[in-house]
Amino acid sequence: MVFSSLVFLFFFLPCTVLLYYACRSRAYRNTVLLIASLLFYSWGEPKIILLLLLTALVAYLGVLLAEKLREKGHPLEKLVYICTLILIVSSLFVFKYLNFTAKNIGLLLGRNFGLREIALPIGISFYTFQTLSYVIDHHRGVIKVQRNPFLLLLYIALFPQLIAGPIVRYKTVEEEICSRSENLDDIWSGFKRFIVGLGKKVILANNTALICDAIYQGNISAAGTAGLWLAALAYTMQIYFDFSGYSDMAIGMGQMFGFHFLENFNHPYSALSVTDFWRRWHISLSSWFRDYIYIPLGGNRVSRPRWLFNILVVWLLTGFWHGAEWNFIFWGLYYALLLIGEKIFWGRMLKKLPKVLQWLYTFLLVMIGWVIFYHTDSKELLLSLTGMFKFSAASWGQHSFDGNILLGIPFLIASLFFIFPNSKIKQTIDRVLPSAVRSCALLGLFAICIMFILSSSYNPFIYFRF
Amino acid sequence: MKIRRIMHKNKSILLALLLAGIFLLLLSGTVRTIFFPKEINSYEVRPANKMMELSLTSFLSGQYQSSFESALSDQIPLSQYLKKIYNDTSSSFMEPGINAYMNKNPDSVLRYNGMNIYRDHLIFDMHNFEEIKADYDHIIQGCNGVIAANPQTEFVFYYIESDYCCDVIGGAKNPSYDYLSSQINVDKSSFGRFEINNFEDFSLYFRKTDHHWNHIGSYKAYTHIASLLGIEEELMQPAEKRVLAGVHSGFKAFTAKLQSVSEKTEVYFFDYPEYSTQYGNEDAYRSGELADFVYAEFYGDDEPELVFDTNNPGKENLLVVGDSYDNAILKLLASHYNRTHAIDLRYYIDENGGKGLDFTEYINKHEIDKVLFIGSDFLYGDSSLIIRS
C-alpha cells in the first residue's frame, strides 16, 4: 500500500483516524496504530511481514538482555550489542545485497553460484536503520530500554515512516510513544501537510517522470544533447518531489497522530554548494551516517588521510544503501570526491563567487549525480553522460517521439517554481487570503490529486461500440 | 474576551466537524465499493470492477489487494466524472502540441499513451505473436473439432490484418495468418485474408481514430469474402456515398485519452432487401436524423445472436462467427442467403451460462450450409471464446 493509492486514501487512512480518535486511552490508541501499521505493511508484503517482526524481536531481546547485563556490570554486554547489530544488518544484507555480492564474486571467480533472485522487501532499508539506531542509542545511553515489545514494534513499524522514511530515531519519539498529546490544530495541520505532499507526488513528480522515462526508456541517442539535459532536469525534479512529497505525507500523518518527526528536506535545490546540498537532502539519512558511521570512525578529528578515508567509507555506504548496483556506488563516490574537493580545494573560492554562480555550480553537479543514480545499466549511463557533453542534435523526427514529453513540460516548469523556499510569496498569501480560503484551496488540491490518481486506472473496454 | 473564547471554542467544533466530514466522505467510497457496487462503468463502457472475496489465499497472493484498488477506481462516487475531466483536459491540451509536432515532422511517429500517431492515424503497436500463440492454439483446436464433427458443412476462414498484427509503417507482419492457415484442417482455398502491406493500404481501408475498417475496407472485404464463399450472383453496389455531417472519435482515441481527436466519416448506403431483423441505423443516418458516426450505431451493435431471414428457401443458410468487424458486412452477406445467422461468441457464451456454442447442434438445428469465421487477432487470439463441437 502506498500513500497515493485509493485503498490508502479511501479506506486505510479514514478508518485509522476515526478508530484512533474513537479511543480514549493511550493504550487503545497505540493498539489501533500498531494494528493499522502491521496491516499497512502486510498489505504489500503479506509474507515478509514476518521479517519485520523478527527484526523487531531481535532488537527487543538484544537490548533487553544488554540492559540486564549492564545492570550487573557483565562484560558480555558489548558482545550482545554487536551480535544484535550483526543479526539486524544480516537480514538487510541477505535480502538486499546477497544477490549482488554473489554475482560479482562469481564474475571475479568465473563461477555462477546459481542463487535464486531474492525479492527486496518494501522499506527494509528504512526500518533496519531505525532499528539499528535504537540499539546503538541504547548502547550509548542516549535512550532508555523499551520494555514493552509492542511499543518498540510500534516505533519500528509505525506506518507513516515505515516504507520510505524519514528515518526516525527512537529518541525523537521516545516520549511521544507513551505520552503524546493530540489536538485538532495538529490534526488539521498534519492533514494539510499530507495534502501538500500528495500533490508533490502525484502532480509534480509523476508528471515530470513522464519526460525522463520517455527519454531514458526510449532511444537515448535520439534525444540529442538538449533532450538528455531535459531528461536530467526532469529526473532531478521527479526524485525531489517524489521523495520530499512522501516525507511531507509521513510527517503530516505523524502529526495527525501526535508524533513530531524531524524535517527530512530543506529546499535542497536552493543549496549553494554540494556540502550545503547534503545538509538539506534526506537529512535523516545523512545524519544517520554522520552519527553512526562517520563520527565513530573519527569524523574530521583525525589525520587527513584517515579523514579522507572516513568520507569515502561513509559515501560508499550511502550510495550502496540506495541500491545494490554499481551505479549507486559510483554515485556515492561521485559525491565523496565532490565533498572532498570542496573541503580541501575549491570550497573557499566557491564562497567568493556570486550566489547565482554558486547555485548554478551546485544544481548542475546535482543533476549529473542524478543521471548516475538513474541508470543502473552502465551502457545507458555512459550513453547519457557522453550525450550530455558531446553535442548532438535530437533525431526524434527520424524515430518515434514520445508525446508524454509534451504533457510533462508544464509540470516541469511548475516544479521549477516550487523548489525554492518562496517564503515572501507564502507570507503574502498568508496575509492576503483568509485561512478559510486557503483551506478550501487545499481541499481543492486534494480533489485534484484524487483525480490524477484515478486517471492512471483508466482502462476502457476494447470491444465497445465505437 | 468571552466572545473570543466562544468563537475559539466554535472554531474547534467546526474544525472537528470538518475533519470528521472529510474522513467520513472518504470512507463512503469504501462503503459504496463494498456494499453498494455498481455493475457498469458507463464511462469506460465495461463491467465495473468489484472486490473479490477476502480469503487467506487471495490476501497472501496480493490478488485481494489489487482487486480492492481496482474496485475503488470504478466504485468511488464521481470517479468516472473525475477521469473524464482529466482525460478531456489532457486531450485538449495535447492536441495542439501533437498537431504542431506532426506538422513539423510529417514522417515522424509520435507515441502517446501506448498509441502511435502517424499522419493523422492512431496506430497500435504490433504485438508479439508468441504472446498469443497459446490463445491461437485454443481457437484452432476448437475449430478443428467442429470441422471434423461436421463434414457436410463448408468452413471458410477470413483473417483481417490490422495494425495489431502488422507494423503498418515499417511493413513487418507477425505470422498469425500463416500459422492459422497451416493449422486449421481445411483446404487452402477456404482461407482468405484482408491484406495490409503498407501504410497506404492501412490508411485507405481503416479508420483514423478507431480499430475498425472504414467503408472502403469493409466493402472490399465483402467482395473478397463473397468470392471465398462462392457467391456467383451480382454483388450489392452502394446506392449512395456520403460524408456524414458529424464527427467520430473512435476507440483508439478513447484509449489514448485523446477524445478531442476526431475524424469525418464517409459511408456507403445500400438498398438492402427486406430482412426479418432490424439491424443498425443506416436509415436514420441517411435521412440526416443521426450525424455523429458511431460504428455500432451505424452498422449495428455486437449481439450474441442475429438472424437475417430473406425468405428464400432455395438459397443456402450461412453462419457467420465473428466480432464487431463483421457488423459492417452482415447485411451485405445476408442478401445472398436464405438465412444468415451471426454469432458473437463473446456474448453468446454469457447468455448461455458459460457453456459456449455447440456448433454441431446449431448447424443441424438451423440447417447451416456454410460457416464463415471472420476476424483479426482479437478473435483468433481470444482464448476466452469457447468453441464446442
Describe the fold and architecture.
Chain A is globular, with a radius of gyration of 24 Å. Chain A is an all-alpha fold and 466 residues long. In chain A, helix 10 (220-256) packs across helix 15. The longest helix of chain A has 37 residues, at 220-256. Chain A has helices spanning 6-22, 26-44, 49-72, 77-109, 124-139, 149-157, 159-162, 170-179, 184-216, 220-256, 274-280, 283-294, 304-322, 326-352, 355-374, 378-389, 404-418, 423-432, 435-455, and one strand at residues 400-402. Chain B has 389 residues and is of the alpha/beta class. In chain B, helix 1 crosses helix 3 (63-75). In chain B, strands 7-6-14-11-12-10 form a six-stranded mixed sheet. In chain B, strands 3-4-5 form a three-stranded antiparallel sheet. Chain B has a two-stranded antiparallel sheet with strand order 1-2. Chain B is globular. Classes of the chains: A mainly alpha (466), B alpha/beta (389). At the A-B interface, helix 1, helix 9, strand 1, helix 17 and helix 19 of A face helix 1, helix 3, helix 4, strand 3 and helix 9 of B. Strand 1 of chain A pairs parallel with strand 3 (109-112) of chain B.
Helix-residue proportion of chain A = over 70%
Distance N terminus to C terminus of chain B?
Answer: 89 Å
Gross morphology of chain B is globular
Radius of gyration of chain B: 26 Å
Largest sheet of chain B: 6 strands, mixed
How many strands in all of chain A?
1
- Portion of residues within helices of chain B: 40-55%
Structural class call of chain B reads alpha/beta
Number of contiguous helices of chain B = 15
Strand order of the largest sheet of chain B: 7-6-14-11-12-10
Largest sheet of chain A: none
Order of helices and strands of chain A: HHHHHHHHHHHHHHHHEHHH
Shape of chain A: globular
Q: Are there runs of chain A of 5+ residues with pLDDT below 50, and where?
A: none
Oligomer: heterodimer
Average pLDDT over all residues of chain A = 92
Range of strand content of chain A:
under 5%
Structural class of chain A: mainly alpha
Q: Which residue ranges of chain B are poorly predicted, with pLDDT under 50 across at least 5 consecutive positions?
A: none
